[in-house]
Design goal:
This protein is of the alpha+beta class and 394 residues long. It contains 20 helices and 11 strands. The strands form 4 sheets. It has a 5-stranded mixed beta sheet with strand order 1-2-5-4-3. A two-stranded antiparallel sheet has the order 6-7. A two-stranded antiparallel ribbon has the order 8-9. Strand 8 and strand 9 (126-127) form a beta hairpin. The protein is elongated, with a radius of gyration of 28 Å. The structure holds adenosine-5'-triphosphate and magnesium ion (MG).
Length: 394
């Protein structure tokens, strides 16, 4: 058993010793069976939230009404959730009620796909009532029970199916795929934040093109923020080699680029955090200049903190290889990296010029900065002083 599970198994052991059933569930079991690295280990148990909280020393009641308690153990956090059934799905929103139950099988039955509905006990024995292991072997995403019912309950599952196609390079089972069309329009009812999480995971998966093809074939893009009329833009993505992209902001950047939308408006519709929106906006401005004029010294200076992201996006768009090493060398050779590295300050300039302060000082520094970067003036006091004298004559 994976080391991460062994440590988490101590929680299962403790629950078992107190007379409760407890299993690993969800993504960690799936990824472990696929021999992929696992991250969060989620636990399902017959213990009620209060009972879980009594058993462990460090707990945080994050979603008690849904049965979830976070247990801290040896520096890690685990979501421990009581076996539950979800009821009263209303208007395609989250269930309005959950009820706690005592059987793991029933808990697994509420889960989205067979590959996500496998439980594993502390000895590594699997509970797999929907043959998830079989589908993992075949590389198939299939809903637990009838797709129509499951997508009707929660249309986000359609988006989740597509992101698993991208992340796992799996195919959709045919009735699961067929049910897409009927329920895709209801994605509009789902909170954009939830869609964004799945969409981002889709964008960063290795088989993102298969996922986008599926989106387009099933016309799902029509119900996603800002993409209703962007079929052609998304088709462009299919022609690009996106493997160069590393960070989330780069994936959002290329998506924004192909839609030709204003980054600020587009990403706001996707409810992205304002920090990411600003970064993407700045990166795309850089991309535009680099695509038009290549990397000038001024461009390297302005974007020395984000040149890699710009270069990766530019490489994806043009189909050339990124040239990080060359750019890095050129940045190292720049005479300055920030304005405060200029060898003189405002006081020097005022003293030498004998002029009153005013907007001209800012204009002077702007021009000076360019000249230093271009190498026409050395970043040295005397040279700058001489240039000031000349500048004043202009
Ligand atoms: P990841 O590795 O990306 O975290 P995951 O499968 O663990 O993938 P989560 O969103 O963390 O995905 O959800 C944990 C588990 O909860 C899933 O494996 C699935 O069993 C269940 N689940 C999550 N979302 C839904 C949903 N919308 N409908 C039904 N079951 C869901
Ligand atoms: Mg998970």
């Amino acid at each position: 058993m994976d080391k991460i599970f062994l440590e988490a198994a101590e929680l299962l052991e403790c629950l078992n010793q107190n007379g409760f059933e407890a299993y690993f569930v969800g993504g960690s079991v799936r990824d472990n069976l696929l021999q992929k690295p696992i991250h969060d280990v989620d636990i399902a148990t017959s213990a009620l939230p209060d009972e879980t909280m009594e058993l462990f020393e460090h707990t945080i009641p994050v979603g008690i009404e849904h049965g979830t308690v976070i247990v801290r153990h040896k520096g890690k956090s685990y979501e421990v959730t009581t076996f539950r059934k979800e009821e009263d799905y209303q208007d395609f929103r989250r269930p309005s009620a959950v009820s706690f139950i005592s059987s793991i099988e029933e808990d697994l039955a509420r889960r989205d796909f067979t590959i996500n509905a496998i439980a594993m006990d502390k000895t590594g024995t699997l509970v797999d009532p929907f043959n998830g292991r079989e589908d993992l072997k075949k590389g198939i995403i299939r809903t637990v029970r009838k797709p129509q019912d499951r997508f009707k309950e929660d249309p986000l599952r359609i988006m989740r199916a597509i992101r698993f196609v991208s992340q796992l390079s799996f195919e959709l089972e045919s009735s699961t795929r067929k049910a897409f069309e009927d329920y895709a329009p209801f994605l509009k009812e789902i909170a954009v934040e939830r869609i964004s999480v799945e969409f981002q995971k889709m964008m960063t998966g290795p088989s993102v093109k298969n996922a986008i093809r599926l989106l387009l074939e099933s016309e799902l893009h029509q119900y996603l923020p800002g993409l209703k009329t962007k079929k052609a833009g998304l088709e462009k993505l299919l022609k690009l080699d996106m493997d160069y992209l590393v960070e989330d902001k780069e994936h959002w950047g290329i998506l924004t680029y192909v839609t030709a939308e204003n980054p600020l408006e587009f990403l706001k519709r996707w409810k992205q955090p304002s920090k990411l929106i600003k970064e993407v906006d700045s990166i795309l401005s850089g991309v535009k200049v680099v695509l038009e004029d290549g990397w000038s010294a001024a461009e390297l200076y302005n974007y020395s903190a984000s040149y890699r992201s710009i270069e990766r996006i530019a490489a994806v768009i043009t189909g050339r290889k990124p040239i990080h090493a060359t750019l890095e060398q050129r940045i190292e050779l720049l005479p300055i990296l920030k304005r405060n590295e200029i060898a003189v300050n405002g006081n020097d300039i005022l003293k030498w010029s004998r002029k009153k302060p005013g907007p001209w000082v800012g204009e002077f520094f702007e021009q000076l900065e360019k000249e230093i970067l271009n190498g026409t003036i050395k970043n040295e006091k005397n040279d700058i002083k001489r240039w000031l004298e000349w500048w004043q004559l202009q």
